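#lab-general

N.A. 3:47 PM
ok so I finally got the sequence cleaned up, no stray characters, all 299 residues accounted for. can someone with queue access submit it? mine expired

B.Y. 3:52 PM
send it over

N.A. 3:53 PM
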Amino acid sequence: MNSVIIIMGAAGLTLFVSSLPFARRRTIGDRVEPYLGGLRGRPSPLLVTATRSVLGSRLQLLWERSRPGSTVRIAQRLNAAGSELTPGQFRLEQVTWGSTGLVGVAALFGFGAAVGIASSPVAVAALAVLSFVTGILARDWLLGRQTLERTARLVQELPVAMDLLTLSILAGESIPAAFGRVSTHMPGGIGDELRRVVADVRAGDPLTTSLETFKRRVPDPAVFRLVDALIIGIEKGAPLSEVLRAQATDLREGRRRYLLELGGKREVLMLVPVVFLIMPVVIVFALWPGLVTLDLLVP
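B.Y. 4:20 PM
back already:
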């Protein structure tokens, strides 16, 4: 009985936290409903179809990530994250994380049984399955975070790399030679990716194929534009220096706009310490002498 109460309390706390404004995200239904609302309070068929399509795409993506035949997709995500793990090792880590959750649940209920707290077998089985699935999804989430962080770091270094590539190409070097020269001056990050492109070319792959592989390793629109411009220049014989310089300028402008947007969002968070820490202290310092004086003057 106590375990059932604990599970219900945890579920209620989770629902309460998820309903708070900072944890609640507007869905596509919330954004589109004012424009597509049906008659007599009924939802629009177009809105229902769009919501189902979004839900179906999310479920399909989850299935593609978890099904046994998604080895190629996992390998691409591991390459994008800069991990040296193989898909098999990643699956093994997922199972390890899930098993760790099972061990944690077993230890929790074992401790409860040792202190005399009775537990329901149904609750034990439900928490065991939930902890195992949570461990698997947590490892997948961590891989996604690593991919996003590495991609963001590479995009920050990309404008400098494009300027150096432009200078190398203007000096008369070929694209592989320019990639190799830039990679020697930028160790780590984007330099490693350029070095892998040069290694693929030296291994016998065509330059366009190596560039396409580089585009798959770094899934970002800026990298896509860079690779497409290089491939078009190689196939059409167009000059690349002006194109690369213009893309570097656009990328810096996009980065500046992103920083301005991020600063605007952080302004709201900056109000939290001001309102809850600084202002109360200022009010106390302003009112405390007067309160002490009144206490001394009024008997």
